[in-house]
Amino acid sequence: MEPSPCQAHPPGNLPRLHSGEHKGLANQEYLDANLELGSEYLIGTSAAGLGVDRYVTSQLQWAAKIAKRPVASIVITGGGAALSAHALLDILIFVRHGLLNRGRLLGVENLAGPGGLKKLGDWSTAAGFNILRVSNGLTKSPTESIQLERDDALPVLGFKEKIYVVGDSHCRFYAGKDDIRGGVDVCEGAARAYSGFSAKFVGLHIGSAAAGSLALGDAASVASGKVASLIANYIPKGSTVAFSFGELDCRNQICQGAASTGRTIKAEAIAVADRYLSYLEQFEASTVRPAVALPSSVTTLEHWGDPENPIFGSQSQRLEAMRTFNAYMNEKTVQRGIRTLDLFESVNDPKGNPKAEYFCNPFNLSQAARPFLQDLMPDGVF
Asked: Are 163 and 380 in contact (CB under 8 A)?
């Protein structure tokens, strides 16, 4: 019989890492060595490795590396009391996906912040863990040690109210994914859904599409038709839907349109944004609440071999296109009462060049940038 949440449970017969044997998640050599130990071992994380200052980078590099390994347990020895609810729930969900075979997370009491252990227990259950309380012994905490046990029978709930990010490949970042694994086709292939990988967001990747073409007919009807199908058949009524389009326009269409028509890049960017806004109008009185996930950066590359990722113009021209597009969208959406998700200033340097540490390829944000997203809604309220 499996123990119920909060029921006493003896610790398993696991090897223990002694003080000084590890340097936290940033020490990749240590991690690589210990990943080969077999099905049961503990990994200690320092306070710096699981703190509030960009903890996600090392945490997710580690989680991605062990995703296919027979991991049994992880012990937390660093404090996280200053973590927001959004950050705490995200990290619990990320770690859960790194644990296989009913793996355990130990020393969880070190994460207890505002609200104490009761709130921590609520978040743990929402992340798909059974709560096991055990006597002190595996951690140096003076209080009772808490273990979480992954239970595949428990759903990963996260926050109750989700944001459904619909659009191009950038929706995967919001959903907690740096790659395409874990997606499920929905609505007869209208989108690939990424759900249960983050606390707040569900990603619905419909494919590459230009924001300025959504309101038009013909080829654009494919993308807009997919969106309509998702809203009618998949996304719950009353949900917030964040539309993720525009990066392709700023990377290619706007500069190309300016070159072919003789208009300025600024004028072309505003024209594209106006068409996008006209498309969004239909959702202002619909069964969902529209929002906009603005593009975060323009690539510094001048060419990319994939025809689905065309690049036109110089980097400075593309940057002008995106700055104009984002500024205009921010202004007009505020007037219409539409919320935006805008990470541009956080992931680029003052000159507008992408900070490489926040990207997983020349176009897409990685989970290293997730703390900026969590900062926008620390309590999960948008």
From this structure: no
**Cβ 167 vs Cβ 244: under 8 Å:** yes
357: Cα separation from own chain's centroid? 15
Q: For 163-376, give the CATH class.
A: alpha beta
- Count the Cβ atoms, other than its own, within 10 Å of residue 224: 18
DSSP state of 369: G
Determine the Cα–Cα distance for residues 105 and 118; give it in Å rounded to an integer: 17
Quick check: do 7-150 and 163-376 share a fold?
A: yes
Sign of the Cα torsion 304, 306, 307, 308 reads negative
pLDDT by residue for the chain (382 residues), tens only, comes to 222 222 222 222 222 222 222 233 333 333 333 332 222 223 333 333 332 222 333 444 444 444 444 344 555 545 455 678 888 888 888 777 766 556 677 667 767 665 667 777 888 889 988 888 765 544 444 456 677 888 888 889 999 999 999 999 999 999 999 888 889 999 999 999 999 999 999 999 999 899 999 987 555 568 999 999 999 999 999 999 999 999 999 999 999 999 999 999 999 999 999 999 999 998 877 889 999 999 999 988 887 777 778 899 999 999 999 999 999 999 999 999 999 999 999 999 999 999 998 898 889 998 888 889 999 999 999 9
| Structural tokens at position 250 | 């700023």
Cα angle: 114, vertex 83, 147; to 5 degrees: 80
Q: Is the dihedral of CA 318, 324, 327, 330 positive or negative?
A: negative
Cα–Cα–Cα angle for 81, 94, 160, nearest 5°? 80
Question: Which pairing describes strands 104-106 and 73-76: parallel, antiparallel, or unpaired?
Answer: parallel
Residue 129 has phi, psi (to 5 degrees) of -115, 145
Task: Give me the residues paired with residue 73 across strands.
Answer: 104
CATH second-level architecture of 7-150? 3-Layer(aba) Sandwich (3.40)
The domain spans of the chain are 7-150, 163-376
CA 328 to chain centre: 25
Please report, as a single letter, which amino acid is at residue 303. Answer: H
CA atoms within 13 A on the CB side of 197: 27
Q: How many CB atoms lie within 10 A of CB 269?
A: 30
